[in-house]
């Protein structure tokens, strides 16, 4: 329950900033901070448990057969990320209160921030891979809202779209990879997956699994060549950049690397794919960062570089490298969030982020300058700061890169070069912004220090950089050990967090990087001139061109597909079915099976012949719509008789009522159509339709023969044996619908309610006026509602409702149930509309059919959720026998509540559709009839 609260609190607090916005920014900020503050407090209560190496879990069974068992897991790795998400999130909430403009919707911004925070918490604390994927996608959607918060700016819209497209595409690949992991392991639960590393690596699917999972990781964590979305996401407000691009969204990918490290690592394929992707990203990001003129652009490319560093460490495939990766995750989150916030302060006070203009800020923003210089020094890896410690561990691990043989020097040389570039772009951040002469044409001048509390988040993060850098063993050691142990799924190797390790190769590499980076910055002007001469190539242009090309091809395909012809659509569907069936038949060694065929009795044969003749007659009579509709009703009636002939009373009742509702629906629609349909365009088109239909009919007959002549094991025996002891009902069909296959039924009634709402929405703005005359020019009778029909309908209604209740109550043991009862009620009520008019019915029966259908779906869903409360899987039903005086013994089952939900949904959806289509506007304004 505690873990569930930690994840749920940000979602529960979504409405608070929206409600508190009218009370001012301060109240809005405090209301927003309430949920993460409570979640952080709950998280810290588990610190001692996690640091002792224990695992905190919470979960329940939902659909165990599909591996859908939602659960939460708090170990050292989850604790570390949850702490960063909540801690830095609280600092960003405080910072955003001062950053956002007075006219900006701060309540909406905070609501988006809480949505993203909850998604990230769900991701890092998930104990099920499918559940983790759900939160993974939610982070993409919520980050889209945050990046595109300034929707009036085209660059923000493009950046948000780009981020969503790239990370969403990676999410699809990750989905495929997770499904394959579940296929190999037999479970999606994290504990089972982490324990099955040998099984996964031995599987023939391992290369495909690894590539798919890494695609998800690389797109989320902006690895080369999927890096391009991150610089363009800088169009977001700076609080978003400080949160998403330091500790949360971009870290989701490396979190997944750390989480699945025991299951997917320890292979050459892992080493080469992860190591060289990380190395390429590390070098490319560092190189590009040096030449950026936009302050946030420099920080964006440096983020890409540091994410490459972390990825490279995981790729080296040693336990100590994994420890170093997690250590750098912590350090990067602190110094990069503080740098983004400092950049936001500078932009807030000067109106610009162009480093060619914002010079000499030391004179105007001395406090901010000091904080930013310390954070930038940590980013460069200067001693006595946290970045130096993890970079030194990084340099040391690159020296032991395996699998490269005589090319083992490539990784450490590349790492040292990237370190030098990091020093150079960090020096540029410090020198160009805070020194380097006077400011040039600033939109706001003179700048001054921001409000006191706007700097507090930066101060807190910089203080952590100093504290960890000077006393790592007393600050970061416990949480680092716990997180590394959880990532490795085992003991952590020995390592030292001392500031001084003596003169060794990692120290030499650090010194070389510091000296070379300083020289590189001093000699920057020739480099800048060389870079300016390079052809301008932005992956954004390639992305935009790809989007335009895809949209254009989709438009052409849609124009060909959607021609407005039902004949065309039906032909395509039949053709697709033909191809699918033919493919299946070609794989069979022979058409017929070992079972023989039987000759139907005379009555059944006659019914089948009449059914075929009636169906054929519909095709010949389709120009005369009313006659064709009557024959179509005959087809339905013959199907009902066949169901009854083969002892399927539930199906027969359902089909009969569906036919009645369908006939009413089609009659209402035909009122607005010509009496005769138009002729086919060409005889050739008609011949094509005949051939297609005939081929499909023959093929279906062949498939039916192939299936029914082969022996198969029926599952009907299971349902018959378990209907009473397992579901408490003798009507096997109803027990299947509301118990054994209740989840299917829930999906069906949900679709029915959605379809009804969609039809209502389409018809809402449609004004259907009653024609003055019919197609022959005759005036309509003045008596719209004949007295006999009206009186009969009023007599029929209570009888029909009584029958409906009877069918509903007996459905668990005899033919009936909520669906059939709902159709009976719907037919009885629609008869009232036909016989008495819409206005008359609404005056006496003011029902909201939207609400009725919604309550039905909600009741069915809540019945399933109720089983969770008692620790059973979703939609598990219970039943019992009770006794009352005079009544005697009777049975009650929770499935009755589910069936009641089905009943309400069917009634609401049916009347919503029929009422919308049958509503007419007379020529008299404001008067409606049916």
TrEMBL record:
Keyword entries, A-Z: Antiport, Cell membrane, Ion transport, Membrane, Transmembrane, Transmembrane helix, Transport
Domain Na+/H+ antiporter MnhB subunit-related protein: residue ranges: 788-911
Pfam families found in the cross-reference section: MbhD, MbhE, MnhB, Proton_antipo_M, Proton_antipo_N
Organismal lineage: Bacteria, Pseudomonadati, Pseudomonadota, Gammaproteobacteria, Pseudomonadales
The MrpA C-terminal/MbhE domain, residue ranges: 685-765
Residue ranges constituting the NADH-Ubiquinone oxidoreductase (complex I) chain 5 N-terminal domain according to the UniProt record: 65-110
Residues of the NADH:quinone oxidoreductase/Mrp antiporter transmembrane domain: 126-403
Originating species: Pseudomonas pohangensis
Protein name from the UniProt record: Multisubunit potassium/proton antiporter, PhaA subunit /multisubunit potassium/proton antiporter, PhaB subunit
Molecular-function GO term, any one: antiporter activity
